Amino acid sequence: MATKTSSRAPLGAQQQEPVNNPIRTQDPEPKKSDSATSQQASMTVDLDAPTIRSSPSVDQEKKTSDPNSVKTSTCRASSCSDVSDESTCSSFSSGVNKPHKANDVRWEAIQAVRSRDGALGLSQFRLLKRLGCGDIGSVYLAELSGTNCHFAMKVMDKATLASRKKLLRAQTEREILQCLDHPFLPSLYAHFETDKFSCLVMEFCPGGDLHTLRQRQPGKYFSEQAVKFYVAEVLLSLEYLHMLGIVYRDLKPENVLVRDDGHIMLSDFDLSLRCTVSPTLVKTSSFDSDPQRKNSSAYCAQPACIQPSCIQPACVVPTSCFSPRFFSSKSKKDRKPKNEIGNQVSPLPELMAEPSNARSMSFVGTHEYLAPEIVKGEGHGSAVDWWTFGIFLYELLFGKTPFKGSGNRATLFNVVGQPLRFPESPVVSFAARDLIRGLLVKEPQHRLAYKRGATEIKQHPFFEGVNWALIRCATPPEIPKPVDYDRLPGPAAPANEKAAVAGDSGGVGDQKGDKYLEFDFF
User: Fold this and answer.
1) At which of 148, 171, 204 does a domain end?
2) Preceding peptide of 491 cis, ω within 30°
3) Residue 500 lies in a domain
4) What Cα–Cα distance (Å) separates residue 336 from each residue in 255, 288, 296, 326, 479?
5) PROSITE patterns under this entry (predicted)?
């Protein structure tokens, strides 16, 4: 995990008393959720072999925050309503088998230190550099002593969390991280606590975040091919989270980090909503009987499936995942007629795993990314993730968000009342605009993916040529430069003393002087 340079203002994160919303005036209502003891049935879905586990629901929002009484700063951070520090949810098991850790040298190093010392704590780490701070903690680049393994360590002051009623948010993030096992989501290597601090040891992403990377592009926007790469991986991340009954609610370029291999990692789960979900397999028509698929030979036959022998990126030519299928070694003369092979294709199963019953009344997110149903206080569910996915796609393509106004209040009114418009430049494909139109429908029940989730989006023509099964084999648009750890300033203090400095300097939710610390990258 890496922290990120942010440039957009926080949305009422620190307000202790809710005040009137400029658009909605009704009193906030408690979130509707299933019982916290309800568990979905465990299931496994292969997407580079991620393990799907059940997620308990939790009533985690208690009050709404004022979206209008926001301090102006150079940061665009997220916010949520304050919550009680009482947790009504059972913890996820952190000891379940996670296939993606099998060949991870960092995981092996952590296990070796645990076996040697009996327990893991701050004394086993050297904090090399403060990467930045967020609403509930400070993040450091940390080296596991006696190894060459580096991690991102999130250090949270427990007393500060308690005084600001953020304990449940920290617990929610930890429990979500404990259950994740997916190529594009964080690995939680360890969690430990001292008398003063709660620490999460996660993956360090040296490539920074997509917001910073976008700022470095010519015109401050990505090429459409690069956008397709990044949003495809984000889409699979959201699909997996929804299968677990997790509504992310905080998608934005600042929260999409870039690993050392150029692939992405979604980060920051303290605003996520957990609920029950019942994944179901739905039979779909064959390719020949589906007009949308019939006209495109590039759709993957089984978009969420991968053979174990093909998990390693070396198994295929790197560019195959984002190249149209018609570039084949066989000529058209050597191929069988379309009608000869089409009739042999049986109906393909589709996994529908939208937590459609999730409802929350909380006011969470970033102004420019808030869905209309959140702004209007109508209650929201998993469809907010597809709205934010549309805003995210728009920003990567055009270098700005579609509803940004002169201020936060104007932005919220634009989200609710202004139609979607596209700038004349840069020029993007019709498919890209069409996908954005489908996602940025103001009524959630009419929004693309409302019923069938990520499957609907995967089948959109914008993703023509994407081999979903082998997406990890695709060549990223940009590979980060390796970090020269030897050139970093040596640690000036032991880990426990360094963490104490973080706590004393306001590293947790520091908002003094109306400024936020900007995050550094290598």
Assistant:
1) 204
2) no
3) no
4) 46, 15, 17, 14, 40
5) PROTEIN_KINASE_DOM, PROTEIN_KINASE_ST
Same domain? 176 vs 240: no
DSSP 351-398: EE---TT--B----B-GGG--HHHHTTS-B-THHHHHHHHHHHHHHHH
Does residue 334 form part of some domain?
no
- Are residues 368 and 476 part of one domain? yes
Choice among 48, 250, 270, 385 that is catalytic:
250
Q: Are residues 195 and 230 in the same domain?
A: no
DSSP 3-state assignment of 60? coil
Q: For the whole model, what pTM was predicted?
A: 0.71
Concerning whether 250 is annotated as a catalytic residue, the answer is yes
Same-domain check for residues 276 and 194 = no
Helix (H), strand (E) at residue 296: none
* pLDDT per residue as tens digits for the range 351-392: 677 776 666 767 777 899 999 999 999 888 899 999 999 999
The answer to whether residues 377 and 467 belong to one domain is yes
Last-in-domain residue among 153, 172, 204: 204
Closest to 360 measured CA to CA, from 88, 58, 30: 30
pLDDT digits (tens, 9 = 90+) for 295-324: 443 333 333 333 333 333 333 333 334 443
Residues 152 and 277 in one domain: no
Encode burial over 483-496: b for 16+ CB neighbours within 10 A, e otherwise: beeeeeeebeeebe
